[in-house]
Amino acid sequence: MVEEGPLPVTGDIDLAGLYTTLKRVFREAGLPTPDLDARLLVIETLGVSTAQLIANPRLPISEELARELNERARLRLSGQSIGRILGRRAFWSLDLRLNRDTLEPRPETETVVELALSLLPAVETPLLIADLGVGTGAILLAILSERLNAFGIGIDIAEGALREAERNAERHNLADRAVFAIGNFGAPLAPVFDMVVSNPPYVATATIADLDPVVRDHDPRLALDGGEDGLDCYRTVFSQASGMLKPGGTLIVEIDPAARDAVIAVAEARGLSVAAVADDLNGDARAVAFRFA
Ligand SMILES: C[S@@+](CC[C@H](N)C(=O)[O-])C[C@H]1O[C@@H](n2cnc3c(N)ncnc32)[C@H](O)[C@@H]1O
């Protein structure tokens, strides 16, 4: 039994009717991007293209599909993101599947990918990359998709995340250059990597309760909780760095812009020096590259 939702699901239902109603409902609910959310839900649920939304407004929609759209609209209104509802999210040029053990990849994390691509040596010989806390595989798979001589290992402590990362690698034909393994960040690794990347959990435990419910209630806690001051995982990763990087290798981490100086201090205390800082689209420092002097 589908719970009552915001859309008409019986009678003469057509594409334009559902789309227009959904946009209005999402606007009235104060969602930040109501029209985009409505379009994505309609396209994905009803299996139509954006062009059809304009060219074929009177397309009849079955009651079954209308009910499914209704249910998804209800989930959006209850605070789930479109990515969580659809179980997938675009990142870089990739369409990545999510599950309950994976963080939903964020656009700002693409800053890590950009910085990594700009700092990888311009060689044709194989490059080895490790992604610590790999989640859906977002950072590692984006880098591998751009550099055909790159090979990678993705580490995560959550088995469910590793399974999804593996499937995402297969979907994007990158599985022959990526392996995935369980571990505590870099603990299982040897010093063979040209580059190590990580977007570790970095929310201070006490502030998790104050996060936007879309994040707090749907992203896994393991992907968010960075300990008392939010820096625990950086301490671990920076302490492991010398056991992972080749001489001259680069370590890149995503940061909360507000924690920039604190993260750099933790790294410098372990012998690492800043090689580059990259800003996200808001102009905030989001990725920092380190090397050993
Ligand atoms: C912020 S998420 C980043 C996910 C992905 N790399 C991305 O950028 O979308 C952090 C990831 O670290 C993983 N993680 C948490 N603690 C870990 C640990 N001790 N060792 C390895 N991975 C860990 C979480 O399961 C989660 O997948």
Using the coordinates shown, work out and report the CATH topology of the largest domain.
Answer: Rossmann fold
CATH hierarchy, class of the largest domain: Alpha Beta
Give the terminus-to-terminus CA distance.
Answer: 63 Å
Radius of gyration: 21 Å
Strand percentage lies at 15-25%
Number of strands: 9
User: What's the overall average pLDDT, rounded?
Assistant: 95
Kindly name the structural category. Answer: alpha/beta
Largest beta sheet, briefly? 7 strands, mixed
Bound molecules: S-adenosylmethionine
Regions with little confidence, pLDDT below 50 for 5+ residues: none
In what order do the strands lie side by side in the largest sheet?
Answer: 5-4-3-6-7-9-8
Number of contiguous helices: 11
The number of distinct structural domains comes to 2
Instruction: Give the full name of the CATH homologous superfamily of the largest domain.
Output: Vaccinia Virus protein VP39
Q: Name the helicity range.
A: 25-40%
Shape: elongated
Give the topology string: H per helix, E per strand: HHHHHEEHEHEHEEHHEHEE
Corresponding CATH architecture of the largest domain? 3-Layer(aba) Sandwich
Overview of this protein structure:
This protein has about 290 residues and is α/β, with parallel strands linked by helices. The protein folds into 2 domains: about 15-80; about 90-290, Rossmann fold (3-Layer(aba) Sandwich), CATH 3.40.50. The protein is built from 11 helices and 9 strands. The strands form 2 sheets. It has a 7-stranded mixed sheet with strand order 5-4-3-6-7-9-8, with helices on both faces. A two-stranded antiparallel sheet has the order 1-2. Helix 7 (about 140-145) links the parallel strand 3 (about 125-130) and strand 4 (about 150-155). Helix 1 packs antiparallel against helix 2 (about 35-45), helix 2 (about 35-45) packs antiparallel against helix 4 and helix 6 (about 110-120) crosses helix 7. It is elongated and about 70 Å long. It starts with 14 loop residues before the first helix and ends with a strand. The model has no long low-confidence stretch (mean pLDDT about 95). S-adenosylmethionine binds near residues 103, 109, 134, 138 and 222. The site of S-adenosylmethionine has 21 residues, from helix 7 and strand 4.
